Amino acid sequence: MNANPGPKLILLCGLPGSGKTTLAKRLAREIPAVRLCPDEWMADLGIDPFDEPARDRLERRFSKHAQDLLRLGQSVILEFGFWTQAERDEKRLSARALAVPVELHYLAASIDELRHRLEARDRDRQPGAVPVSREALEEYAKLFQTPDDDELGLFDEPPARRHG
Question: What are the recorded GO MF terms, alphabetically (predicted)?
């Protein structure tokens, strides 16, 4: 049973294959919380997962929906990856404007481990899983801004902050 029954926003931060969806599903059951995962929605709607304008529109819509859910007292998990500090700051500040705690769960793994997990995921044909090549993964890693201890300190303390 959750000791704090009020709503909270949970941001899952990490590269493809880091375990965001696995953690999100577990947390959604335990808290309980509404889980919003763009990859799954895009797959279900038949949208190319690499259609960046569509992904941006969907993530903006999810962000508005999350704010509505938080206002109604429902906890929300956003599985966007949150590759930049600016994205993480924006979500933290918008939830804090509603007086809602915000957790950031950073899931870290080496490129080799991520690639291994992605290959296994591709073999299993998991629903909503986006195929990611090693080359793309290496490019994504160059764009990813790892949250440091100072940034992590801006968020409310989850039971385990770093995963991987």
Answer: ATP binding
**Is the CA virtual torsion 136, 84, 111, 116 positive or negative?**
negative
| pLDDT mean values, one per 10 residues, the chain (164 residues) | 74 95 96 96 92 96 98 97 97 97 95 91 74 91 95 83 54
Cis peptide before 5 (omega within 30 of 0): no
How far from the centroid of its chain's Cα atoms is residue 60's Cα? 14
* Residue among 20, 81, 77, 23 nearest 52 (CA): 81
Going along the chain from its start, the domains and CATH numbers come out as 9-163 (3.40.50.300)
* C-alpha–C-alpha distance, residues 3 and 161, integer Å: 18
Output the DSSP codes for 48-96. Answer: -TT-HHHHHHHHHHHHHHHHHHHHTT--EEEEEE--SHHHHHHHHHHHH
pTM to 2 decimal places: 0.89
Tell me the CA distances in angstroms from 128 to 23, 49, 68, 69, one per residue in order.
Answer: 15, 9, 25, 23
How far is Cα 14 from Cα 142, in angstroms, rounded to an integer?
13
> Dihedral of CA 136/152/161/49: which sign?
negative
How far apart CA 139 and CA 134 sit, in angstroms, is 9
